[in-house]
């Protein structure tokens, strides 16, 4: 009979080897950071760093490059940065700050900016006393802004909107001659669902009777808690919606859906979520997508969070086809 002490190391080694094999082959691999052709830019983040938390942006592309209006938390204001390629950005500069006379906007953030007839139009979120509203301003150059109303142009009035409306995404529909807005409503700390409203002048809005027009799908674990903070793009035959899905109130990922009318029958992408938290600067959550197709590829900017800090990154997708089934 062999000495027990002499064979113990061999047995222990075999057990460790078996356990290692089991872990490698049966432990689920970490989820991919991107799917369906999306790739995160290797030099992310592209804006943030020493400037503190920068989040929830709006971007326009022009002949001279890109302009990004961001939510600059330390300044409680909306800031502007510019870029030639959408990857390297200038330092943020505050262009719309809180107005002490307007008690509903002691903190400004979450802008949505468009250009119509050589004039910039911005709908933005004003916050105070644990509530949020949407305001409206215009500018001849995207830098100097004039508020078009001293009071909010959209407020939480319906049960599903609870205390807050925020995150306006607006387009001008030339055919119907109306502004179309998709907005988030619900809780102040991350709203719950997405509503829709229309306006002829950008100030007076009519909410869709069927609101909210986009809700979370409890059957999808990644968005079972909430959906919010969308960007809607009008294409030839449909509307694209990039949005945030929340597994729970602290863990967010990015998905995309499409609809023929922008109101009903939203078809979610089969591989959602398309952008997911990584291992570094965006390891805690990814939020607020904003995408532009430049003729060759999509650029999708988003804010990634690690613990309490958010910064802006970008993901790229070659070609216009995003991979919907039909």
Task: Annotate the secondary structure layout.
Layout: H1 4-26, E1 38-40, E2 54-62, E3 65-72, E4 77-83, E5 93-96, E6 107-116, E7 119-128, E8 131-139, E9 146-147, E10 164-173, E11 178-186, E12 193-199, E13 206-207, E14 226-234, E15 239-248, E16 251-259, E17 267-268, E18 285-293, E19 297-306, E20 309-318
Antiparallel strand pairs: 1-20, 2-3, 3-4, 4-5, 6-7, 7-8, 8-9, 10-11, 11-12, 12-13, 14-15, 15-16, 16-17, 18-19, 19-20
Q: Care to give the gist of this entry?
A:
The chain is mostly beta strands.
Characterization of the model:
This protein is mainly beta and 326 residues long. Helices cover 7% and strands 46% of the residues. It contains one helix and 20 strands. The strands form five sheets. The protein has a four-stranded antiparallel sheet, with no helix packed on it. Strands 2-3-4-5 form a four-stranded antiparallel sheet, with no helix packed on it. The radius of gyration is 23 Å and the shape is globular. The N terminus is likely disordered.
Query: What is the approximate shape?
Result: globular
Count of DSSP helices? Answer: 1
Strand order of the largest sheet: 1-20-19-18
Helicity, as a percent range: under 10%
Low-confidence stretches: 1-30
Distance between the termini: 71 Å
**Main sheet summary:** 4 strands, antiparallel
Arithmetic mean pLDDT: 92
Radius of gyration: 23 Å
Tally of DSSP β-strands: 20
Which sequence of SSEs, written as H and E, runs from N to C? HEEEEEEEEEEEEEEEEEEEE
Tell me the fraction of residues in β-strands, as a range: over 45%
Helix/strand/pairing category? mainly beta
């Amino acid at each position: 009979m062999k000495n027990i002490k002499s064979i113990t190391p061999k047995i222990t080694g075999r057990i460790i080897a078996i356990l290692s094999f089991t872990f490698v082959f049966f432990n689920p691999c970490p989820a991919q950071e991107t799917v369906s052709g999306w790739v995160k830019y290797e030099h992310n983040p592209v804006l943030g760093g020493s400037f503190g938390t920068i989040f929830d942006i709006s971007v326009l592309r022009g002949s001279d490059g890109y302009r990004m209006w961001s939510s600059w938390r330390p300044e409680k204001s909306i800031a502007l940065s510019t870029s030639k390629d959408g990857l390297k950005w200038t330092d943020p500069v505050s262009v719309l700050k809180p107005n002490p006379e307007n008690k509903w906007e002691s903190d400004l953030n979450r802008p949505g900016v468009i250009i119509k007839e050589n004039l910039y139009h911005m709908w933005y979120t004003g916050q105070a006393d644990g509530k949020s509203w949407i305001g409206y301003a215009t500018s001849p150059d995207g830098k100097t802004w004039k508020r078009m109303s001293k009071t909010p142009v959209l407020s939480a009035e319906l049960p599903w909107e609870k205390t807050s409306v925020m995150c306006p995404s607006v387009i001008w529909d030339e055919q119907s001659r109306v502004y179309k807005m998709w907005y988030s409503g619900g809780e102040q700390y991350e709203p719950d669902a997405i509503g829709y409203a229309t306006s002829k002048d950008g100030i007076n809005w009519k909410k869709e009777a069927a609101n909210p027009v986009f809700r979370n799908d409890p059957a999808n674990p990644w968005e079972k808690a909430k959906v919010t903070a969308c960007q809607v793009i009008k294409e030839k035959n449909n509307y694209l919606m990039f949005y945030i899905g929340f597994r729970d109130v602290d863990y967010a990922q990015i998905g995309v859906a499409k609809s023929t009318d922008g109101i009903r029958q939203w078809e979610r992408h089969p591989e959602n979520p398309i952008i997911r938290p990584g291992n570094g600067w965006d390891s805690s959550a990814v939020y607020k997508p904003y995408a532009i197709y430049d003729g060759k590829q999509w650029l999708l900017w988003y804010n990634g969070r690690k613990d309490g800090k958010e910064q802006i990154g970008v993901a790229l997708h070659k070609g216009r086809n995003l991979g919907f089934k039909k």
